[in-house]
Amino acid sequence: MYKSFSMELAGRTLTVEVGRVAAQANGAVFMHYGETVVLSTATASDKPREGIDFFPLSVEYEEKLYAVGKIPGGFNKREGKASENAVLTSRVIDRPMRPLFPKDYRNDVTLNNLVMSVDPDCSPELTAMLGSAIATAISDIPFNGPTATTQVGLVNGEFVFNPNAEQKNGSDLQLTVASTKDKVIMIEAGANEIPEDKMIEAIYAAHEINQQVIEFIEKIVAECGKEKHDYTSCAVPEELFTAIKEMVPPQEMEAAVFTDEKQVRESNIREIKEKLKEAFEENEEWLELIDEAVYQYEKKTVRKMILKDQKRPDGRAVDEMRKLSAEIDLLPRVHGSGMFTRGQTQICTVTTLAPLSEAQRIDGLDIDETSKRYMHHYNFPSYSVGETRPSRGPGRREIGHGALAERALIPVLPTPGEFPYAIRTVSETFESNGSTSQASICASSLSLMAAGVPIKKAVAGISTGLVTGENDEDYIVLTDIQGLEDFFGDMDFKVAGTHDGITAIQMDIKIHGLTRPIVEEAIRKTKEARTFILNQVMNPVISEARKEVGTYAPKIIQIQIDPQKIGDVVGQRGKTINAIIEQTGVKIDITDDGLVSICGVEKESMNKAMEMIKIITTDFEEGQIFKGIVTSIKEFGAFLEFAPGKEGMVHISKISKERIKRVEDVLTLGDKITVVCLGKDKMGRISFSIKDVPQE
């Protein structure tokens, strides 16, 4: 049965249509926010997937370029693999949804969002987040929702909720907050050094709006919601846990995990599994569950040690970081390099500089953003965790980590006017044991300064974790979590920033939300840790950007010309500018307002190109001295090219102070000569003289 529901959300109408389309999905809603339209569906398999120990959730965000009236570029006029924005949006939708499904649910679930129309003032990403939450809530799929999501901007010091396109362009904050009925469940932010208190205020202002949206969703569920279906639980039987504890007492399990060496811990756990498999070899049903049972036993042990005994697996105090180190200039020929090490997490970031013409072009749903000047890429090879698997290119996790580091560093980058380069940083994970994304932010800050990129301030990142007990007051927040504490804990709260404020946040949790005291403590602890990293680890290595780019980096000089002269520099079909490039070996970029950037490695070649451009764009005046090459000889004189595409003539009477009968008696093709400008002749050609060149 078709039903339509509407509410006013941040000054625009949000309409949810149920039963109009996609009736065969478990849950489907046709979402309208302004003129943005997204079809959100939730589907689940009938039976659990066999042989897995995780919840198989897939989230898709499909961008269709017809939504903004575009045909895909390139030879293939069909949308291809998901764009970076689509991948990042899928991850943001996934994070608040995943914790609300039953932990023992193993049926495949797919949340699909098809973007069909885009109103620049009504975010399709936000519409899809709401759509996935509503489609799942009204479906028969087990789900402890609903959730709601709000975006927050900061324009002229005032919060703006679900900002429009103009407000986004002028905002100092890009914050996305998802909530359940009681708690915050997801935070994602990019910010221009927003103070911690202001960020907390923004988070909970969004949380209040989310409560209004949840009330709206609950009305939809009350009228259209299906009864949740039963499912086969994949929980480990209590009898197996009891049998395992008899063979491996809690003290033995605690001794196995209590080490700061990841490899030692993994070896200890392998021995325990082998011991149990040998003991239960006659019980095939239990044999299949041993890996999951040991995982659960290990998890309970770690959580009990931390929460009850305040004892971390590697022996650190609750707010103590692992051993830290930083260095720069590891690689001699690159433009800049920096390495940051935190315990068994080690990242090396390499910076590469190029002309602005090498900025990344973007073909997506954002009409305003067509290129990206700063690119951060993150790689996570299998050797970094002691495993072996073929490299298949970056996955969603790698793309997400790269985007997080990029977001953290953008606020401190110089403008193109201050530093006319395209910038790429690549973070290579050498070793991983927790929070490599934040280590890549630290390494990238070091690398950029080493490369001579004049960033305004250094940026550092750190992650806090969480272990909760039976009630909201029973919890402990951990500074600098390692992999084990991330796997077995309840939260990975990443915060990056400078001394003066936050530049990026990403929060992942595995429980049904965080209370305000937990959020405030996590942000406070990351501030303390970030300050320590900046002052004690990074600043002693390099505290500000080098004054010049490195020896092997391209150099860029700029000249402003009259925009009406751009055509003279480019020439017919690019003939003039290509000639300059061929003669000097430089790269040249020209903006519409006449700013010419000349990029090269040798200053002599760059200066030569600049001189050519100056000649081409200068209005010729009598008395100016030029050097040129004879390109043509006629009976009445010689033509010479004094800049690519620019020619003038020396009349035979102006070649020599003595009378000559033929031009060839003095000049030959290819001669390099110095001339003085006499102005323009009757035919409008530039006229030169050799004999009148001043002797000095």
In short:
With 696 residues, the protein is α+β, with helices and mostly antiparallel strands.
Give a quick set of tags describing it:
696 residues, alpha+beta, Ribosomal Protein S5, domain 2, 5 domains, eight-stranded antiparallel beta sheet, six-stranded mixed beta sheet, 16 helices, 30% helix, elongated
Structural write-up:
The chain has 5 domains: 170 residues, 2-Layer Sandwich (Ribosomal Protein S5, domain 2), CATH 3.30.230.70; 68 residues; 215 residues, 2-Layer Sandwich (Ribosomal Protein S5, domain 2), CATH 3.30.230; 63 residues, Ribosomal Protein S8, Chain: A, domain 1 (2-Layer Sandwich); 65 residues, Nucleic acid-binding proteins (OB fold (Dihydrolipoamide Acetyltransferase, E2P)). With 696 residues, the protein is of the alpha+beta class. Helix 1 packs parallel to helix 2. The strands form 6 sheets. The chain has an 8-stranded antiparallel β-sheet, sandwiched between helices. Strands 1-2-3-4-6-5 form a 6-stranded mixed β-sheet. The model has no long low-confidence stretch (mean pLDDT 92). It is built from 16 helices and 29 strands. The longest helix has 29 residues. Helices cover 30% and strands 30% of the residues. The chain is elongated. Belongs to the polyribonucleotide nucleotidyltransferase family. Its main location: cytoplasm. Involved in mRNA degradation. Catalyzes the phosphorolysis of single-stranded polyribonucleotides processively in the 3'- to 5'-direction. One of its GO terms (molecular function) is polyribonucleotide nucleotidyltransferase activity. This is Polyribonucleotide nucleotidyltransferase.
